[in-house]
Design a protein that fits this description.
alpha/beta; Aldehyde Dehydrogenase, Chain A, domain 1; Aldehyde Dehydrogenase, Chain A, domain 2; 2 domains; seven-stranded mixed β-sheet; binds nicotinamide-adenine-dinucleotide
Length: 505
């Protein structure tokens, strides 16, 4: 039996419960269908067959979730940090135990290759461990002295929060947002993306089986414009942690205005990888290929604009094209697959339409350039490289969110910087040069929340994560996450019997 056939059998076993029972919400520790009994279907992008019927929650379900989170909040917030730490580590243990199930379900629901998803569950567990270890210190603040006064700051959890996640790498992203909220002492209502809801269900079950008290974490599935909108408008929800498209972020800001919602946004990107002639071109090409074609290019931090110094442009883009053509496209459960099918026919159509736009704008297809006939006949798109592009083209300005790379040449450092910054986004940047002074100068002027020099994106959890311009508001990671999920409070103590103005005599 080939690895693929063995994996397919296992996936079928893991998916059987979803086929049978559907994907229910989880409210106050109880599995529940949508109150009005409606559902929607989630498809496998491999063969477009339905995987499960999903509870189609609406405002009433969100209201129940928010009330459960509100009721669970006082006890959860009061639990000593050490106890929360132990519990979050137990969740991490349970994620590791079920890593294979999580990976297989994620592959079939999203089309992501097992090669990457096998590690996604472990990354999710690591997120829980990282924030678990910080839970005991989450409330710590600082002491600020002045004459006659000592000020003490402390942090308190903000209250029940709403977490809204996108369909790309949904398991990992959900852990990244929910673990710090729980570590801070907040309770949660999670609204996962409608295209890939399966592993969010596994995650909340795992957490409750590990001992998380009922109501601390509630799951409400549904459409963005219904369940998502209701969550952002709910008066008991104090903050919204959102990951998704920039224009959805704008909507959420408007929807949350009446209840003065605190928001944290991780949004879209059109991230440049800038390659100077003095770079190690082979390593730079490997990194550029990895950052655009891994995870099917459905990745906010993907390096989707390739800016290359003119003197090495042809050599470098040839290198990238060769590598792109050799990438194995296939079934997500085939261990050799690098690029699997895109999430959904709607998204596939969007990505393919951008490939046509690129052609009509006059860019040259140097690799890929269209649909791929993959196993199951699903949403496969060939890793594509456009050369001869300009930064004014739509393929250089708009987020395609697929395996499509747009290469543009520059003549000098000033032009490279101008091109890199000439976009509405500013999430990440990747710089390749052996000139350290230039690297300092360039990164200082580059509009991006996160920049890697001579490296692909290698995440170190304590570092700040987030974007500038239309790529986001706020930072995650380390203590930055606690700043969002907690309120800082200042308490001033008089240390002397200072003179108080006597206004009434
Ligand atoms: P999306 O904005 O369409 O949806 C994200 C979530 O928002 C979904 O759960 C959806 O149901 C919900 N939603 C939609 N409309 C809503 C509304 N009016 N009110 C409340 N919720 C609503 O994004 P997507 O297509 O699922 O994901 C892809 C996008 O996510 C890309 O733009 C990508 O760059 C971005 N992303 C960013 C990061 C980051 O860290 N910056 C990480 C991953 C993905």
């Amino acid at each position: 039996m080939s690895d693929l056939q063995g994996n397919l059998k296992k996936a079928e076993a893991y998916l059987a419960r979803f086929k049978r029972d559907g994907v229910l919400n989880q409210i106050g520790g109880e599995a529940a269908p949508a109150l009005d009994g409606t559902t929607f279907e989630t498809l496998s992008p491999v063969d477009l067959k339905p995987l499960a019927k999903v509870a189609r929650g609406g405002a009433v379900d969100i209201d129940r979730g928010a009330k459960a989170a509100k009721a669970a909040f006082p006890a959860w917030a009061a639990m000593p940090g050490e106890a929360r730490k132990k519990l979050l580590h137990r969740i991490a243990d349970a994620i590791e135990t079920r890593a294979e199930e999580i990976a297989f379900v994620e592959c079939m629901d999203t089309g992501q290759a097992l090669k990457f998803m096998a590690k996604a569950a472990l990354r999710g567990a690591e997120n829980f461990r990282f924030f678990a270890d910080r839970a005991p210190e989450a409330r710590d603040g600082e002491t600020l002295r002045t004459t006659g006064q000592v000020n003490m700051t402390t942090r308190v959890p903000i209250g029940p929060v709403g977490i809204i996640t996108p369909w790309n790498t949904p398991f990992m992203l959900s852990t990244w947002k929910i673990a710090p909220a729980l570590a801070a002492g907040c309770t949660v209502v999670h609204k996962p993306a409608e295209f890939s809801p399966l592993t969010a269900r596994l995650l909340v079950e795992i957490a409750e089986e590990a001992g998380l008290p009922k109501g601390v974490w509630n799951l409400v599935n549904g459409l963005g414009e219904h369940a998502g909108k209701a969550l952002t408008e709910h008066p008991d929800i104090k903050a919204i942690g959102f990951v998704g498209e920039s224009r959805t972020g704008s909507m959420i800001m408007r929807q949350g205005a009446d209840t003065l919602k605190r928001v944290h946004f991780e949004l879209g990107g059109k991230n440049p990888v800038i390659v100077f002639a003095d770079a190690d071109l082979e390593r730079a090409a490997d990194a550029a290929v990895f950052m655009i074609y891994s995870l099917n290019g459905e990745r906010c931090t993907s390096s989707s604009r390739l800016l290359v110094e003119a003197s090495v442009y042809d050599e470098f883009t040839d290198l990238v094209a060769e590598k792109a053509k050799r990438i194995k496209i296939g079934h997500p459960l085939d261990p050799a697959t690098v690029v699997g099918p895109l999430i959904h026919p709607v998204h596939e159509e969007k990505v393919l339409s951008y490939i046509e736009i690129g052609k009509s704008e006059g860019a040259v297809v140097a690799a890929g350039g269209g649909k791929f006939a993959g196993p199951g006949g699903g949403c496969y798109v060939s890793p594509t490289l456009f050369t001869g592009a300009t930064n004014r083209m739509r393929i250089a300005q708009e987020e395609i969110f697929g395996p499509v790379l747009t290469a543009i040449s520059f003549k000098d450092e000033a032009e490279a910087l101008a091109l890199a910054n000439d976009t509405q986004y500013g999430l990440t940047g990747y710089l390749w040069t052996s000139d350290v002074t230039r690297a300092f100068r360039f990164t200082d002027a580059l509009d991006a929340g996160m920049i890697w020099v001579n490296s692909e994106n290698v995440r170190h959890l304590p570092t700040p994560f987030g974007g500038v311009k239309n790529s986001g508001i706020g930072r995650d990671g380390g203590d930055h996450s606690f700043d969002f999920y907690m309120e800082t409070k200042n308490i001033a103590f008089a240390t002397t019997a200072h003179a108080i103005q006597k206004l009434g005599g």
